[in-house]
Please model this.
Amino acid sequence: MHTIFAKGLALGAGALFSINALACASCGCSLSSDWDTQGIGARAGFKVDLRYDYLNQNQVRSGGSAVSTWPQAGHEQELKTVNRYTTLGLDYTTEGAWGFNLQLPYIDRSHATNGFNYDGTDYGESHTQSLGDVKFLARYNGFLNNPELGVQVGVKLPTGSHTEVFNAGPIAGQPLDRGLQPGTGTTDLLLGAYRTTTLTQTLDGYAQVLAQMPLNSKDGYKTGNSVNVNLGVRYTDLGRLEPQFQLNARAIGKDKGANATPADSGGVTVYASPGATYEVNDKLSVYGFVQLPVYQYLNGYQLAPRYLVSVGTRFSF
Model:
């Protein structure tokens, strides 16, 4: 079984998932919470997932370390960004080898910046609350009569607003930075694959990778290409309680365009994510995870979170 899982990890280096892949490397939640719809334990029918993610970007980082002197000449003195994502997931698995997933995110984001003057003359605050960019994914696991191996293809649609403005401070009414908008304005292609396997009688393993590639630019802005890799194990010998542990990695290229700030965008992050799922009954389950950064390399100067929290519930029909 270990050989089988090793093959799965190899596929994972080149296989999928992310609910909230955003423009910058230091924000967004790369956690996977969809084991029950793919591979091991997957059952035909509808599932509804409601998930809440919280991350407070309140640490300035550059390269691989936190910044001790802030601000830095030539860089915007961002102060904080607090993100709250509520995502409704609708999933359908057929009796055959196909499955379909729709993600509807609602974004609540507060942001404050001291601008480039550092003296309050271009201070600004924003608070956006709106629908984000919707994602649709189709999956297929009919290869080689092995339901543990699957591929995914999908699209991210430009449903989120990209025209929000600052609503407080001397720069109130001016456009909010594009990397902080609820939507990117672009249509993105999603491609990936996943592998699930049984490691032992009490351990399951999982590997996923997602590539996200914008197909266009919008109003002088285009996010960088991104790749997410998730590796996980779960313990299945505690009845309705399933402890889990994941490693979630993301690499994102720099933003492009006249309205982008490429010098302060993109990078690589890796999170260790302990958590658990509890099966309330045959149809209802709840889950919770904490993501802790174990590696961060961010281009330029970016705000990063010290931790992320994800909780959710899933109902099967």
About this structure: The two ends are 32 Å apart (CA to CA). Helices lie at 2-12.
